[in-house]
Amino acid sequence: MARTPRPLTPDRSARHLFGAEVRRHRELAAMSLERLAEVVKYSKSHLARIESAECMVPPDLPGSLDAAFGTDGSFGRLYGLARREIHPDQFRRRMEIEAQARLIQEYSGQIVPGLVQTEEYARALFRTHNPKAPAGEMEELVTARMSRQALLRADPPPDHSMILDEAVLRRSFGGPAVMREQLARLADLTLTPTSVVQVLPFEHGGHALMGGSMALLTMADGTQVAWEEGISTGTLLEDPGDVTARQRAYDLLRACALSPKNSAAFIRSVMEALPR
């Protein structure tokens, strides 16, 4: 049975309008996704995701679409709007992409990334962020955080790489017992078949990713996005140039960080220094 096309919502954003216009012109031309894929040299699955606004439009595609449909630059002009648009559902999109990613690369400068937080660390973190939150609301947040980690237990799981600033290890949440459990988890993840943890010591000094946290999410087809997060806001970056710049900064930082073996030793030394 043929898959039912996803309903389009062109009024939501320029990206949604771009996808709707691709489908409209394709159907007017009586062209299947398979045929359009042959013409513009993109996969059928990639084009389907563009039509439903599930991924950012590649910069070379608008010109190919204008040539295929004879639209005299319409897709190029629409792309100029779509590429600069802040996605209206950024965090939801980030979670959807994360759940499908085959490679997750994270840098964190202050706190342990959510995907590897222990339950007690997450609870202490949420309590610190909003001490007036009702207990029930707090537990809902913790439950949601723990359920998000299920993607690391998928079959097969994504590869997960983390670079952690030394501050992540030394900044305590919940007290020594909570931190000891959290650091033990990180030490266990330093080098496994699907995870790598590297520590960036204070002695390295400044670098391009200071000031927040970042995740690079790579899909099975090679599509990549970046997520930058501050105190209370996050930004999803899908423009290829922006993502490439973040990947380069991450690669440079990884080259300067401790090896996984030395990172494990460093993490355990911080554990041993915690008061009993």
SSE layout and pairing:
Elements: H1 14-28, H2 33-40, H3 44-51, H4 61-69, H5 74-82, H6 90-100, E1 103-108, H7 119-129, H8 135-148, E2 159-165, H9 166-170, H10 176-188, E3 195-200, E4 213-218, E5 224-229, E6 234-237, H11 240-256, H12 260-273
Parallel strand pairs: 1-2, 2-3
Antiparallel strand pairs: 1-4, 4-5, 5-6
Helix pairs in contact: 1-5, 4-5, 7-8, 10-12
Mean pLDDT comes to 90
Uncertain spans: none
Given helix and strand content, the structural type is alpha/beta
Which strand-content bin applies to the residues? 5-15%
Q: Identify the CATH architecture of the largest domain.
A: 2-Layer Sandwich
Oligomeric state, counting identical vs distinct chains: single chain
Strands of the largest sheet, in order across it? 3-2-1-4-5-6
Tally the beta strands: 6
Overall shape: elongated
The radius of gyration is 22 Å
Helicity range:
40-55%
User: Biggest sheet, in brief?
Assistant: 6 strands, mixed
CATH topology-level fold name of the largest domain: Endonuclease, Chain A
| Domain count | 2
Distance between the termini: 62 Å
Report on this model:
Strand 5 and strand 6 form a beta hairpin. The mean pLDDT is 90. The protein is 49% helix and 13% strand. With 276 residues, it is α/β, with parallel strands linked by helices. Pfam families: DUF5753, HTH_31. This is DNA-binding protein. One of its GO terms (molecular function) is DNA binding. InterPro entries: Cro/C1-type_HTH, DUF5753, Lambda_DNA-bd_dom_sf.
